[in-house]
Design a protein that fits this description.
The complex is a heterotrimer of chains A (444), B (412) and C (464).
Chain A lengths: L1 H24 L8 E10 L5 E2 L2 E6 L2 E6 L9 E12 L1 E6 L10 E2 L16 H6 L2 E6 L5 E2 L4 E4 L8 E3 L4 E5 L2 H48 L3 H12 L15 H7 L8 E5 L2 H12 L12 E3 L12 H6 L3 E4 L4 E2 L7 E2 H7 L3 E4 L6 H5 L1 H10 L4 H6 L3 H6 L17 E4 L10 E6 L2 E5 H4 L1
Parallel strand pairs in A: 1-5, 6-8, 7-9, 12-13, 13-14, 14-15, 15-18
Antiparallel strand pairs in A: 1-2, 1-3, 3-4, 5-19, 8-10, 10-11, 16-17, 19-20, 20-21
Helix pairs in contact in A: 3-5, 3-6
Chain B lengths: L1 H19 L5 E10 L7 E10 L2 E7 L10 E12 L1 E6 L30 H8 L2 E6 L7 E9 L6 H4 E11 L13 H26 L11 H4 L1 H5 L4 E6 L2 H14 L4 E5 L8 H5 L5 E4 L4 E4 L4 E4 H7 L5 E3 L11 H10 L4 H6 L3 H6 L17 E4 L10 E6 L2 E5 L7
Parallel strand pairs in B: 1-4, 5-6, 8-9, 9-10, 10-11, 11-14
Antiparallel strand pairs in B: 1-2, 2-3, 4-15, 6-7, 7-8, 12-13, 15-16, 16-17
Chain C lengths: L1 H18 L12 H6 L35 E10 L5 E10 L2 E6 L9 E4 L4 E4 L1 E3 L20 H8 L2 E5 L3 E4 L9 E4 L3 E2 L7 H30 L14 H9 L5 E5 L2 H14 L3 E5 L8 H5 L3 E4 L21 H7 L4 E3 L19 H10 L4 H6 L3 H6 L17 E4 L10 E6 L2 E5 H4 L29
Parallel strand pairs in C: 1-4, 1-5, 6-7, 10-11, 11-12, 12-13, 13-14
Antiparallel strand pairs in C: 1-2, 2-3, 5-15, 7-8, 8-9, 15-16, 16-17
Helix pairs in contact in C: 4-5
The chains are: A alpha/beta (444), B alpha/beta (412), C alpha/beta (464).
Chain lengths: 444, 412, 464
């Protein structure tokens, strides 16, 4: 605690030092403030590399990316000569720092934020590794909850970027999957039926009431003027709205999937071994509503060095799947015939999202080096970098907000001391919303 | 007509009796095929083997070999005559228990000779499986568990009759089992300990030799710990070394065969040990007796490898097969060879690997392992290819005596 | 010269003796061997068990009218076809359509679009049936537990096994899919009736007695009911647990299965089965050869391990222990049996030859004990299929049955033979040269194939 306090004091002092020259130049206006980042190199993620490059941030958005740009003199300048800037990395799946808790069964409404304790959350771990956003997931078998995308800024008032990004589905054994999928969707169907029945009942009641009213009206038709007075009465009362009964919140997300709602979350399946993907398909197609839909296509693969995932490469590339995969996964390791599963998947047209080899600081820190290894074995540089920036943004539905260094996107960046795929590349600064939230210089 | 017959008969009886008075016991085996397993790799069809006093005295095609008068003819024209199999790695010694004393990590001076049972159901089954000689050695629960005994499976009553050579070999176990002796025992310590023991034995041998040759005046005291090692350093007997993976094999070749100059038989040599075949080829006195694991699943290549076949492909020619009985029952020695063939070896070489090669490995090829004039008459009559589980051993002959006949009671 | 003369005399004497004189002893010439050697050592075919009549010969060599050209055809051409229940056809063709055999013969019409496998020089057998196994298919309902990429399935196929019983269902060793794996549900009632557990023995016997009594009452009741429709039915609420088991045995709804080894226990259980008239399968039966008629009389089937080793019980003076001739003796007494190795799984840790990887060689050990080779093959194909109730689908090559084959590069019972292709439901499930598992061992077409070069220490200039 003491240390943390000490750090924040130092950070405050540094901030004052940094801001000092700006205050001399002109009056700072927070709403109009312009920030400029000058880096030795900017990898935009759209295919361009600027050397050197500048990024101008106005009103919390990237307004210009280029070279020798003009910007107001009073702009705040973050100068990083010799460093390489790219879009901040996004972690597509993590439970790092969450209080451990295992939710088994169908609990789609469970938010991992309830396992998050701001006091003890190791945000610095994410920042040190260059991750600006993380999709937190709860642990457990079945549908343990939903993924929540958060900023990794240490102190943040708007922590949540997206309250629900996807539905993780975990199962270690085929039987577990059949039971999770079967039970989950059966429950969802039950809820739909429940609402339907209530609706029918309500409709019936309405009709009966109407009939009754009509009959009464007929009866009183002969009475003449007296009826007219009475018939006005219902018109005064607004027609009653149907109030559907409360659905079990744990399965509402599955109801949305069955009803093909636009805001239905995608299911992301953790395939412990390749055979489970076939069992998942079989389990999903045994749900009658989902039988004729496209099969699931987002998978998390395990980080083992072995694993016969080469057996399902064709299946995954055929459906252009999105795969979340730690870079170590391969088949026939230590041989000349080694197959680097992420490489063959990316080459086959799958969207590749790289996960750390382990869900901890060391794993996250190792991501650039592991990516470099994949590049050595045939992955393109662009695909490698996109697999930690744009592709996870796309998976989480945030590609209009982050993932590249482009005009209009949010200013989340990571700066490396050299090219990120160079051996030994280190994160120097992590910038979230235009603010340096982690700086290696501070650590000295 | 009858009188003529009787006259002939009388002549025959007179001549045979006159010759058999004080003469040798002669048997003639007339068979369909002899797989000699000799140096020339001869296979003789319609052949005869003459056995005199337990030794092979003649063999060849039926029309070339004279059957001495008075010989007992055993006529088996449909059977194959194959040398008795030699088991290089047996722990039963006639009884069904492991002959192993867990005293220290190295136990120089212990001998299985003291514990063997020369007859019993295990020996009977061995004969029924075509095995005529076994090297009974102590187990691999510690690094050095004592000296083994080479004995025949004839099932004779006395140890003296059964034993062919004692000590038959020194059992050394490198890594891959002695770790269980005590917590903390690892490869570094085991190698140090084995080396230290061998070094002491070598010193003793040198001291005694110097005294014997008059190079030193005082007689070093006799020590039963080290006495049996002298034959080993004179290369009159061998060391049977329990090895497994290639690293263990390399240290064995370096230490036992290299540093101490001991004739080494690499027992087991399983898992991926065949990778160092080229290293073994550099010392032609080393024999590799593979088994009982005939199969290695190479996870990296996702291939099932036949250990024997891979040794062979690596150029190792002094290659045999063992059962490690009772790990694999003694009578299934031939079946281990069949397994080696299923996984890529060739049947003739595999048959050699259970007959002549182990005999050579144990330095007993002057007595066993092939059908050659002058060798012990240890052979079996098979209904066909001895490695084929469908063939059966119909008769086992040890030292010229029929010790198993399936016609009386089929054991296996 | 003298010896030549002597041998001449011997020869002459032999001729005379054989033709003329009854002679006993007194000479060193032993003749027993001559007479004895006339008997071929193997292949003793005495009293073969009555076989079901061979299938109608019409499908053989009969041209199937190809009026429905659509469908997936597979033609395996040129192999020696071992149909098991019918004749052996050399150089024949087996045609299957949509996973079922449609014709077998030498000169049959094959549609142009059929997938063809040239199996000349190979032997075609029905896929082997392993009576029981662990780890080859998923447990329970394979559709919900099978790992479609499991190595156990591949090694099982490499051993020639295409169907097996996993304890509750008979499943096929199909890879890469998790549908249509189960042939049928099959469960036996495991009973224990051995001298080591007299309590259990008594329990079972008494349950059978009690339920038999109840069934008699039920029969009486049925008769009474014809006269008096209001007659009260005997109470059957107590038929639960062991009684329910006893009832399903007595009504022949289920088959009992029991592991029995000694002749003593075999006698007891056979007596029980005869008394109560239930069907059973005996696993083990190591000492059955002593009194083979026992099992024949009570109609039991046996699961044998020819090589199993059991010492004679010295405390009982009589014959005992295992015998390699067990299979032959049971066969000669008409006892149906299937053959299983000692281990029910496939182990890759090296101790080769004792598990399901070498199921045919376990059958070869029965041949060693005198069993005819064709019966040995039946004991790993049609016989286990019959015992598992799937003989209408698998176990032999007959028109209408499932197209489950193995194509071997040699005789099934030879220790050098490998499975070249394994086919299930008309689809190639295992191809030795594609699979990579055993492709380096005697690849076809090469007399002296290059070995995989992975020996080291590598030397300069070695290819990587």
């Amino acid at each position: 605690m003491k240390r943390r306090y000490f750090r924040s004091v130092i950070r405050f002092l540094l901030l004052i030092l940094l801001v000092q020259p700006l205050t001399l130049m002109g009056a700072p206006d927070d709403s109009q403030r312009v920030t400029v980042i000058r880096a030795g190199r900017v990898i935009t993620g759209t295919g361009e590399v600027l050397e050197p490059g500048e990024v101008v941030i106005v009103e919390g958005k990237i307004s210009l990316v280029g070279n020798q740009l003009e910007y107001p003199k009073n702009a705040r300048l973050i100068d990083a000569p010799g460093q390489t800037l790219m879009a901040g990395m996004i972690l597509a799946r993590s439970s790092h720092g969450l209080q451990s808790l295992s939710k088994n069964g169908t609990n789609c409404n469970w938010s991992p934020l309830r396992q998050l304790n701001e006091e003890s959350m190791p945000w610095d771990d994410f920042l040190e590794a260059g991750f600006v956003a993380a999709s937190l997931v709860p642990a457990g078998s079945g549908f343990p909850g939903h993924a929540v995308v958060v900023k990794t800024t240490p102190e943040s008032s708007d922590r949540v970027i997206k309250a629900a990004a996807y539905l993780p589905l975990n199962g270690r054994s085929p039987t577990g999957i059949y039971s999770s999928v079967g039970k989950g969707f059966d429950a969802a169907r039950g809820e739909i039926e429940k609402v339907k029945k209530a609706r029918e009942k309500w409709d019936k009641e309405q009709e009966e009431a109407k009939k009754k009213a009509e009959e009464e009206a007929k009866k009183k038709d002969g009475d003449g003027a007296a009826t007219e007075q009475k018939s006005d009465k219902p018109e005064d009362e607004k027609p009653k709205e149907f109030e559907p009964p409360q659905m079990n919140p744990a399965v509402i997300e599955l109801v949305k999937i069955l009803e093909e709602n636009d805001d239905a979350l995608p299911i992301v399946f953790f395939a412990q071994n390749p055979g489970l993907i076939l069992h998942l398909d079989s389990a999903i197609s045994s749900v009658k509503e989902l039988k004729d839909r496209d099969p699931l296509s987002i998978f998390i693969l395990p980080g083992s060095r072995t694993g016969a995932f080469h057996q399902v490469v064709e299946l995954l590339t055929e459906r252009k799947a999105t795969v979340l995969v730690p870079p170590a996964l391969s088949a026939f390791p230590d041989t000349y015939t080694r197959i680097y599963i992420p490489v063959v998947l990316a080459r086959g047209g799958c969207s590749l999202v790289t996960l750390p080899a382990a869900d901890n600081l060391a794993g996250m820190r190792g991501v650039p080096a592991k990516l470099a290894e994949l590049v050595r074995y045939g992955l393109s540089r662009e695909d490698a970098l996109a697999s930690v920036t744009l592709e996870p943004a796309r998976l989480l539905g945030l590609d209009d907000r982050m993932g590249t260094v482009e005009e209009g996107k949010e200013p989340h960046f990571v700066l490396f001391d050299t090219d990120p795929l160079e051996p030994g590349a280190r994160v120097m600064k992590t910038i979230i919303a235009g603010e340096v939230v982690w700086d290696r210089e501070d650590r000295r | 007509m009858r009188t003529i017959t009787w006259i002939f008969l009388v002549i025959i009886i007179i001549t045979s009796v006159s010759e058999s008075l004080g003469a040798a016991e002669v048997h003639a085996f007339r068979v369909g095929k002899i797989v000699t397993m000799d140096g020339a790799d001869r296979i003789i069809n319609n052949a005869v083997v003459i056995v005199t006093d337990g030794k092979i005295t003649a063999l060849g095609r039926a029309r070339d070999v004279q059957i001495p008068p008075g010989a007992t003819i055993i006529e088996k024209p449909q059977l194959w005559l194959v040398p008795g199999m030699v088991e290089c790695h047996n722990h039963t010694g006639g009884s069904s228990s492991d002959l192993h004393d867990y005293v220290y990590l190295t136990n120089p001076g212990l001998r299985t000779l003291e514990a063997i049972v020369p007859d019993g159901v295990e020996m009977e089954r061995a004969r029924a499986g075509g095995v005529t000689t076994v090297l009974t050695i102590p187990g691999s629960g510690n690094n050095m568990s004592g000296f083994g005994t080479i004995l025949k499976t004839a099932g004779t009553g006395s140890v003296e009759e059964a034993v062919l050579k004692a000590p038959g070999s020194l059992k050394i176990a490198q890594a891959g089992n002695p770790e269980r002796y005590f917590y903390g025992v690892g490869r570094s310590f085991m190698n140090f300990n084995t080396r230290q023991t061998l070094r002491k034995a070598m010193d003793y041998h040198k001291a005694r030799t110097a005294w014997e040759q008059g190079e030193r005046a005082d007689e070093p005291p006799k020590d039963l710990h080290w006495e049996e090692f002298r034959a080993l350093f004179r290369r009159e007997t061998v060391a049977s070394v329990h090895t497994q993976m290639y690293q263990v094999l390399m240290t064995t070749v370096k230490m036992v065969a290299g540093e101490f100059g001991i004739r080494t038989v690499l027992d087991h040599s399983t898992f991926d040990a065949w990778k160092v075949a080229r290293l073994i080829n550099e010392d032609q006195s080393i024999y590799t007796i593979n088994g009982p694991r005939q199969l290695h699943y190479d996870r990296t290549q996702r291939r099932l490898m036949g250990n024997a076949a891979r040794w062979w492909q690596g150029g190792v020619r002094q290659l045999g097969i063992n059962t490690d009985s009772p790990v694999v029952p003694q009578e299934e020695l031939f079946y281990q060879a069949a397994m080696a063939c299923y996984y890529g070896w060739t049947p003739y070489e595999a048959l050699k690997g259970v007959t002549r090669i182990p005999a050579e490995a144990l330095m007993m090829d002057h007595r066993l392992g092939s059908i050659t004039v002058g060798l012990d008459a240890d052979f079996c009559l098979w209904t066909g290819d001895p490695i084929d589980p469908r063939s059966s051993c119909e008769m086992t002959v040890i030292d010229g005596q029929v010790t198993y006949d399936a016609n009386g009671k089929r054991v296996f | 010269m003298i010896s030549n003369f002597k041998s001449f005399l011997v020869m002459l004497a032999v001729i005379l003796l054989v033709t003329d004189i009854p002679f006993t002893g007194g000479t060193s010439v032993q003749l027993a061997g001559v007479a004895e050697a006339q008997d071929p050592p193997r292949r003793r075919r005495r009293g073969r068990r009555p076989q079901p009549p061979p299938p109608t010969p019409e499908p053989l060599a009969k041209e199937e009218p190809l009026d429905e050209p659509e469908g997936e055809y597979l033609a395996i051409e040129g192999a020696t076809i071992h149909t098991i229940t019918g004749p052996v056809i050399r150089g024949g063709t087996v045609l299957s359509k949509d996973g079922k055999i449609v014709s077998i013969g030498v000169d049959i019409a094959v549609p142009d679009d059929a997938q063809k496998i040239d199996a000349s020089g190979h032997h075609l057998y029905p896929g082997l049936v392993a009576f029981r196994s662990n780890g080859l298919v998923g447990s329970g309902e394979a559709e919900k537990s099978q790992d479609p990429f499991a190595l156990g399935t591949v090694t099982g196929l490499a051993a020639g096994i295409t169907s097996t019983w996993n304890g509750s269902r008979v499943s096929k060793l199909i890879r890469g899919q998790v549908t249509d794996l189960t042939l049928r549900r099959q469960s036996f009632i495991s009973i224990s009736y051995r001298s080591g557990n007299p309590g259990k023995k008594k329990e079972l016997r008494e349950a059978l007695e009690k339920v038999q009594e109840h069934l008699r009452k039920m029969e009486q009741h049925a008769l009474e009911k014809q006269k008096d429709p209001d007659a009260a039915a005997p109470d059957d609420k107590w038929i639960r647990g062991p009684y329910a088991i006893a009832r399903s045995l007595l009504l022949a709804e289920k088959v009992a299965i029991s592991r029995v080894s000694t002749i003593f226990d075999l006698r007891e259980i056979c007596q029980l089965a005869r008394r109560f008239g239930f069907k059973m399968i005996i696993e083990g039966a190591e000492e059955a050869w002593i009194e083979p008629g026992l099992l024949a009389r009570c109609g039991a089937s046996v699961v044998l391990t020819p090589r199993s080793r059991r010492d004679r019980d010295e405390s009982r003076g009589a014959a005992g222990g295992s015998s390699i001739e067990n299979a032959r003796i049971l066969h000669e007494s008409g006892v149906p049996f299937s053959i299983m190795p000692a281990s029910k799984g496939i182990a890759l840790w090296g101790l080769a030859g004792r598990d399901l990887s070498h199921l045919p060689l376990e059958a070869a050990f029965a041949v060693r004990g005198g069993l005819p080779e064709d019966v040995a093959v039946e004991s790993i194909t049609i016989e286990p299929a019959r015992m598992l109730g799937v003989a209408d689908r698998v176990g032999s090559i007959e028109v209408g049955k499932d197209a489950d084959f193995i194509i071997m590069d040699g005789d099934l019972l030879s220790y050098m033979s490998h499975v070249r292709w394994a086919i299930i439901d008309g689809k190639v499930q295992y191809d030795k040269m594609e699979e990579g598992l055993l492709d380096h061992i005697r690849p076809p077409g090469e007399d002296d194939p290059p070995a995989p070069d992975d020996h080291w220490p590598r030397r300069l200039g070695d290819p990587l």
